[in-house]
Specification:
Chain B: Pfam families: SpoVAC_SpoVAEB. The structure holds three protein chains of three kinds. By secondary structure, chain A is mainly α. Chain A has helices at residues 2-22, 28-44, 47-55, 57-60, 64-75, 82-89, 91-111. The longest helix of chain A is centred in the N-terminal third of the chain and has 21 residues, at 2-22. The chains are: A mainly alpha, B mainly alpha, C alpha/beta.
Chain lengths: 116, 145, 337
Amino acid sequence: MDYVVAFMAGGGICALAQLAMDVGKLPQLHVMSLLVAVGVILGISGIYDRIVAFAGAGATLPLSGFGYFLTKGILSQKELDGWLTIGAAMFQFTGAILSFAIVLSFFTALICKPKG
Amino acid sequence: MSLKTNYRQAVKAFQPAPPYFFNSVKAFVVGGLLCALAEWLAKWYSSFFSISAISAQQLAVMTMMFFAIVLTGAGKYDDFSQFAGAGATMLMTGLANALASAAIEHRSEGWTAGIASQMFKSGGAAIVYGIVAAYLLGLFYYIVS
Amino acid sequence: MKLVGKQTWVFEHGIYIQEAGTAVGPLEAEGPLRDSFDIVHDDLYCGEKTWELAERRLMQEAIQICLEKARLSFADIDLFLAGDLLNQNVTANYVAREIPVPFLCMFGACSTSMQTIAAAAAFIDGGFARSVLAATSSHNATAERQFRYPTELGIQKPKTATFTVTGAGAVVLGRKPGRWRIAAATIGKVVDAGMTNPLDMGSAMAPAAASTIEQHFNDLGISPSDYDLIVTGDLSRVGSVIVRQLLAESGYDVTNNYNDCGLMIYNPDQKIFAGGSGCACCAVVTYGHLLKEMERGAFRKIFVVATGALLSQTMVQQKQSIPAIAHGVVIEAAKEE
């Protein structure tokens, strides 16, 4: 059942993004940014937490999940000690993901040539 | 309405429209399947390593990104995206592909000026908007709470 | 007077294409015109380390095979005209570095092939050169990374997108009577129809092509039926229909003798969206396929209109529309002495 919910949620987000590109005529990179921003807005208001509890990876794997992870870091601080902690806290969960992607991309680029 | 008098409007009749329905179905099915796979990974990580749900989700996302970067290196992810559209590009795997593809493309300009400097060329936008939005809303949350 | 009407140059004193040479990449070789090309590469890198070097290699090979076929050396060439799509015309300039001949670099985006031929014919007719070498090239990957996105980035392209042809073409023009005569050329004006989508170049270029073709008929007082074939450079599936409609609205019927190089170079089942584009599209189809067809007697007189979208990524990002230009050249089959 969890897999069906993840499938429906993830597929639904992707289908909406596809419609934004096809019908809304928005460029792909804009839709990607938009999706992350939507994740941030839903994340900081606590709504996305409930979606994740329900849909699991169906909500964390789409790009809106990246926005969710950013705000999750801020929200999970026991006590926000000034604006400095905000900058640090948003990387609590995303730091691992981003640095992993950057390091792996770097080494992939050393090994692989573009295939065209 | 003739092309001569109002080209910008009349030309639209000659431009083939994207297959709205078919594209959305493909995005739904492929994106959904990838999410279900990630959910399976997360469940497995969570029970096998006995870690928290959020760490398992993180690991699942990173695993999917790993496969996306490997496929990008093999030159297959662009074909996959052409087929699946948003089902491939609007996931974290799409972000991984954006970073890796730009890095690979610019390897011909060297390690520093090429790979390192150009890596965020297309994926950077999503990351920047995420951080800016989280920072602003985080400040707002801090002031309110 | 060599200028007839507003924009058409007529060459009455016999200017001939001496020989032509072409080199193409793997996808073009899978197309229906494979046997028309002189050099065919199985590898998109053409044995080089980067895409840009691969494109340079293609142009060098096209020039080399062209001169070999014409039994000429660089010492016989008075002027070299070339251009390509890349910033600062790097392919043409770096190829010219190795060629000890006076060089003029030309940029007309994908219209460069006919632009160089028209200019070469004018230089010869004016007595400024006896024989001129004209070359142009494009490469799918160099164009993608410069004008659009990294080649491995997953972007879902629409059906209107065109696929840049990987290849290069070169011709030598001179006074010595040969198999193909350059009869006239119509130099186009820059036309901007207000299109802004770089993934739909056909719509952006069609008005420029129509403008040049109409002007050509007006200047010479002739009609489409005077040609066995009117062929545009790279309007693809979208633009070729538009240009036919535009011409029909002006009262020119080209239903029976019109084609587009972008539609001829690939098989319809290849994954090339709306068709081929790029400098090399018009160049390799014309220099490779069409000249051989004329030699075979399939066509006697053709009008080749190379279309170019004067695209710049910076200008597109600043929300500017895409200007376009088209240059036409009339090629006649001539009997060899």
